[in-house]
## 1
Amino acid sequence: DAGVTQSPTHLIKTRGQQVTLRCSPKSGHDTVSWYQQALGQGPQFIFQYYEEEERQRGNFPDRFSGHQFPNYSSELNVNALLLGDSALYLCASSAAMRGGETQYFGPGTRLLVL
Amino acid sequence: ELKVEQNPLFLSMQEGKNYTIYCNYSTTSDRLYWYRQDPGKSLESLFVLLSNGAVKQEGRLMASLDTKARLSTLHITAAVHDLSATYFCAVDSNFGNEKLTFGTGTRLTIIP
């Protein structure tokens, strides 16, 4: 049973560029959440997708957008990259109808903005 | 706005000793999670605590939740080097909708 997978593992971009990160949830999971983890800090919630809709959102600007596909996989898009967007981006999946279970995290995508 | 605080931020302890990490949060919640993170790696789920008084144990780690005090503890018994990692607590701030607010993390180093 494959766990949560993310691609790419590492990415280097320059300021002003756009980036797309991808996530496939754990088998049987239908909800995908995205988190940003800056160096030395705890992860911060960006947004969550369920049934192809953004269900809830954290305190991130509109430059951060996402999408969920019918197979439950998800993308995170960041436009007009800033140096401060450099971080580890984590995707987590869960099953909406089984409340109380933990979220399973993927290996992350490390983004460096120069 | 929900705030989650952990202490200590850094902990260096000798093998064989016991210690406790504390997680305080600022608003009502009955769902609390503990995760472990090794350097450069993702988050590994340790415990899910879903009710007041919940206690869970796995190996040398035991977690508890007091929702009235808004406090969770992660107790380490007879520490071994393999437990060296950063530990995060996270609170579900939206009553089961799984929007997690993470603590600052506790970097634990076990010294032989």
## 2
Amino acid sequence: DAVMTQTPLSLPVSLGDQASISCRSSQSLENSNGNTYLNWYLQKPGQSPQLLIYRVSNRFSGVLDRFSGSGSGTDFTLKISRVEAEDLGVYFCLQVTHVPYTFGGGTKLEIK
Amino acid sequence: EVQLVESGGGLVKPGGSLKLSCAASGFTFSSYAMSWVRQSPEKRLEWVAEISSGGSYTYYPDTVTGRFTISRDNAKNTLYLEMSSLRSEDTAMYYCARERRDDGYPLAMDYWGQGTSVTVSS
């Protein structure tokens, strides 16, 4: 199974700061078709996860350009510029290249 | 508007069974693969089942293979998860999620329901 390791576990930030979250896979997430199926989600308190980024760097419909994804192979990063209060919650990465699909453990973005 | 509404959760004894449902609306249900994902009380997420758009293909992780069965009724726009031989470690919030595909490959779970809670305890 592809083990997904997210760091840090907790990320205290000040509003307006940039935040960066790392997600590392135990094996390459590049598919035989050359694409990499790594997604990012935000789960706000009391809500279900919502898709932010798919296939490493593509923003889902309605997601602001303050959110950006990058990476390749086994190392991926989600950056949030100019953090706002509505961005607070737990961020998860998810790989769907390999079965079973696997999630990272989550990174809690909170106010410093 | 895409809507997914789960139901059927509850308290069940170890070894018992439960059947979850997910009612879909706002999109052409029969055109999308679907998944079930659960979130433990410790907030860890785990994918537990996937079914193709037509229902012919199903996939599970080893943790639930042989105990969970995913199915769908495209005429009723409803997804199901039958769970048997339940264990305490199956206690979780269970979400259904729609899957976008990329030329036949799974791309992302793009919409999720609000979840239904399952507690396995004596």
